[in-house]
Specification:
It is built from seven helices and 15 strands. It is of the alpha+beta class. The structure holds 2-oxoglutaric acid (AKG).
Length: 317
């Protein structure tokens, strides 16, 4: 029994796992996928990257003669791949995922997003952030299920988490960083933890890392000389909560902003109390190309960003 480090087996998700998740903000289900399922996922990733599942916005040019490595190396991440892949759509309700989610979220659970990270050797990671910065729930129920498609190690850029950092329920400020270790998203700062408080979540392929939407997490660049650190991340929340996401596109005309509710969702467990609204099919897959990290002009160091923030009121006066 090694529950104290947050690693559990499928079928072992009980009160101890739930308590670990509540306190630390994450847990791991070891080897939740079979070798066959992993193999299918890896093959589907190549098909998707080659455009065989249909067009994807942002797809880099590749020729049929190019090697799989050449094609995969141009893509850092595919957003919403389940929209064109029946296989990835089926991974949204894998039994080990539902086993954990119905324990840590509740009986009624919906999914609103999938992301497929490829992160070839040499490619950047993701800076400190909290997923609720991007996907706002009303009840802090956002939970990621991060399915490792390769062994994820410190060397190849595994996930790092700050245990317990979800508990205050605060969204920390973010700024557009210029750190070449990370892709172009924004970075959280001024939270009361140090980088040294983070722990690497090294897992074997087929394991699933679950983490709360307020948990501070990041990943570092893939420093291996070859290979990938691929993962499929699905995001879930309580079906009882509205989802005020992408409101301009999805808010019903008669509703105020306070009632905005993104309805391109998949119910994966229990009942949807808002089933009367129906669902939408509006999200389309999109590719984030694999740059080298760092985002060039217009990006700031934290010191520059803070100096600008301090200068703003004075400039207005
Ligand atoms: O896998 C990664 O590199 C980052 C994943 C992540 O930050 C997320 O899923 O929110």
């Amino acid at each position: 029994m090694n529950q104290c480090n947050g690693f559990f087996s499928s079928g072992e998700i009980g009160a101890e796992a739930e308590e670990f998740f509540r306190q630390q903000g994450y847990l791991v289900v070891k080897k939740a996928l079979s070798a066959g399922q992993l193999e299918q996922l890896l093959r589907e990733t190549v098909s998707l990257a080659r455009g065989k599942l249909g067009p994807v916005e942002g797809m880099p040019d590749s020729s049929a003669a190019e090697s799989d490595d050449g094609v995969l190396g141009k893509i850092l991440c595919v957003h919403q791949p389940h929209k064109i892949s029946p296989l990835l759509r089926s991974m949204v309700n894998l039994p080990p995922i539902l086993e954990v989610l119905t324990r840590v979220i509740g009986p009624n659970v919906k999914c609103m997003q999938s992301m497929l990270f490829i992160k070839a050797a040499g490619k950047p990671g993701q800076a400190w952030h909290q997923d609720e910065d991007y996907i706002p729930t009303r009840d802090r129920s956002l939970t990621g299920a991060w399915i490792a498609m390769d062994d994820a190690t410190v060397e190849n850029g595994c996930l790092w988490v700050i245990p317990g950092s979800h508990r205050p329920g605060i969204l920390w400020p973010q700024y557009p960083h210029a750190d070449p270790r990370f892709d172009c998203a924004r970075e959280s700062y001024d939270f009361p933890h140090r980088d040294e408080d983070a722990v690497p979540v090294e897992v074997s392929a087929g394991s699933i890392v679950f983490f709360n939407g307020y948990l501070l997490h990041r990943s570092l660049p893939n420093k291996a000389t070859s290979g990938y650190r691929r993962c499929l991340v699905n995001h879930y929340m309580s079906a009882e909560s509205l989802l005020p996401w992408f409101t301009a596109a999805t808010m019903p005309k008669e509703a105020g902003a306070a009632l905005a509710d993104y309805r391109d969702i998949i119910l994966v467990a229990g009942n949807d109390p808002y089933a009367w609204k129906g669902t939408l099919d509006i999200a389309r897959p999109k590719i984030r190309p694999a740059g080298e990290g760092g985002c060039g002009d217009g990006r700031l160091t934290l010191q520059e960003h803070k100096a600008l923030q301090t200068a703003k009121p004075a400039a207005k006066a």
